Structure formats: C-alpha cells, structure tokens
Amino acid sequence: MDVTIDPRDVGPGELETWAAARGCDAVVVRKLLSAIFRRGVLEPDRWMAESQIPKRLAESIGPLPLPRLRLDASVVSPGDGFQKLRFRTAEDLALETVLIPLHKEGAVSLCLSSQVGCAMGCTFCATARMTTRRNLKTWEIIDQFLQARDVVHSQGRRVTGAVFMGMGEPFLNYDNVMTAADLMRCSSAGSVAAKAITISTVGLVPEIDRYTREGRRYRLAVSLGAATDEKRRELVPVAARWPVAEVVAAARRYALARRTRVTLAYVCISGVNVGEDDARALGELIGDTPVRVDLIEVTDPTGRYSPPGADELQSFRDALTRHVGQPIVRRYSGGKDIQAACGTLAGTG
Ligand code: SF4
C-alpha cells in the first residue's frame, strides 16, 4: 500500500524525492508548495483543478483531510499591539504563538512554539511549569505559521520574520524545527528570508555544534541566563549541565564558522544577575568572541523575580560597555499585559 505524506511535514528536498518516485518533477513540487503556502489550499480536488497537480500525486497525500490546529483564543495587547494566538492540538494540548509588530510599518515577526511545555526547567519561565510536554510535529509548527500569517494578512500586514522563542527548547526538537524552518524559507513555500529566521536555545552544546556543522543559514540566539555556573544552576538548571564556558565556546565556534556575531540573550533580574560582578564575568567569558548581547527584562508571573529598575539596568549596561565592549541591545519583551512576553507562555492566558 502506498504510504501517504503530508507536504507540511517534510522538507522541500524530501518532498522532491518523494514526488520523483511518483514520476513528478521539481516543478510539480513547487506548484504543490505554492498552493499550500501561498494560497492556503489544502484539498486534493483543488490541487488538481487549480494547480494541475497530477492525480497520482494528489492521491498520495494524506491523511486527509490534512489536520489543522484549532485556534481557540486570540488576544491583542491594548498596550503595545502584540497579539497572542492560542492553539489546541488534536489531544487538546495548548500552545501559543505571538505576533510581534516590528518598527517597519506593517511588518510582523512570528514567535513560534517548538514544543508543548518545556523540560529545561528555567525558574523564571511559566512554560517550564506546564505539566504536559511533547515535541510539536513539523506540520504543527507550520500550521502555527500559516494560521498566524492568515491573521496578519487579514490585518493588511505581512510576515517578515519568524523566531523560535515561544514555548519549548527548539534544539530538543531539532529535526522538526529545522524542517519547518526549511519550509518557511523555501521560495515556493513560506518565502521568509533565512536571515529573518532565528533559532533560540538555552545552551545545548551538542546541538549548537550540530547546527554549526550543518551550516544552517538561520540566525542563532543563545540564552545564557547568567555568566557563572553557580547562577545558571539556579536560573536554567537543566541547561546548566553544560558549563557556561562550554556554551560560549560552542557559540564562538558557530560565530567563527559563519563569520557573524552570535546573539547572546541575557534575561535581566533585579538583584540576581545585573551587578558589576556579573558584567565582569560576562566580559571574561565572551573575550573576543563576536557577539551581540540582547538584554531582556524578566517577566515572572509568580513574582519571584523582578526586572531591574531603570537605574539598575543602566548601570549594568554601562558595566557591560566597559567589560564586553561589543554591541549591547535592549530587547523589548512585549505583550506583558496579555501573558505574551518572554517566559510567560503557558497556554492559559
Ligand atoms: S525559558 Fe525557554 S528553555 Fe527555559 S523553560 Fe522556558 S521555554 Fe524552556
């Protein structure tokens, strides 16, 4: 019996191999991807009628109807226009996607989830407290992208980028995330520029090295949490099994191989990791590794951690300028009023 395939679940290259085995060439694959990604057509009858997809190929696609995530909530922040979509899987698990308005008029970046829940256990993160966890399938990641993009288009705006900074640690779901990114980047499918897709990790050294080895063209952001192992053990306990020096060494290998700056994300917590000592430790750790340091103020719904005040943050920035001497960027974590900010996604808001 013929094995069916969901074109949202395999990479463009694998799809071509599959089509070739059925006597169809790359042009047919491009038409199929274009029908799904550009026009949102998910029915075999319409693939055949509107895109001249051969019947033998259309009939090999399945299971039909192609499954969708159920969109069950959408909320827009009155404060800053961030929008959060909550989806439900077939087994009723919640996952969330955030629409991030960019400075450029009408441009939106999508913050996608890679898992339901997250096993990394970061102590400032609501996702870590979700009791059910699993990797998202590639088609579930792609369906977030397609449905969120439909929302963006209905508002007369356009999607110009995607970041894997929603629920989950993307490198724990490496293959599915990379396949989804490949589909989002493919010019016949999502058409998002590779440099506008960011994969964010809390510091899984073997996967950072794999990513470097494979020469992936997407941006990489490594979230440090803290510059010392002692503090990382408190803030990002699971990721802290790799000493922070090894994490930065892996980030350095990536930066040098790609001849780019690697983004180091740093969650700023008042009284915990924003002192002069922390800046000095970060500077020693980074050395001459080409980095950009993104500072993100913590949003902890439990109230255990607080963001630094304006003076405390400015002092830390000044100290980083002295000790790191490379670009320091304050990254806005929006949608706090709708539980859409970094570390607050839990499928409940
Ligand atoms: S911050 Fe990221 S890696 Fe850490 S628990 Fe939350 S989702 Fe997972």
Quick recap of the structure?
With 349 residues, the protein is α/β, with parallel strands linked by helices.
Characterize the structure shown.
By secondary structure, this protein is an alpha/beta fold. It is globular, with a radius of gyration of 21 Å. A 10-stranded mixed β-sheet has the order 1-2-3-4-7-8-9-10-11-12, covered by helices on one side. A two-stranded antiparallel sheet has the order 5-6. The model has no long low-confidence stretch (mean pLDDT 95). A hairpin with a 5-residue loop joins strand 2 (83-88) and strand 3 (94-101). The chain has helices at 12-20, 26-37, 44-51, 55-58, 138-154, 174-185, 205-213, 229-235, 244-258, 276-286, 310-323, and strands at residues 70-76, 83-88, 94-101, 107-111, 115-116, 134-135, 158-164, 197-201, 219-223, 262-268, 291-297, 328-330. The protein binds iron/sulfur cluster.
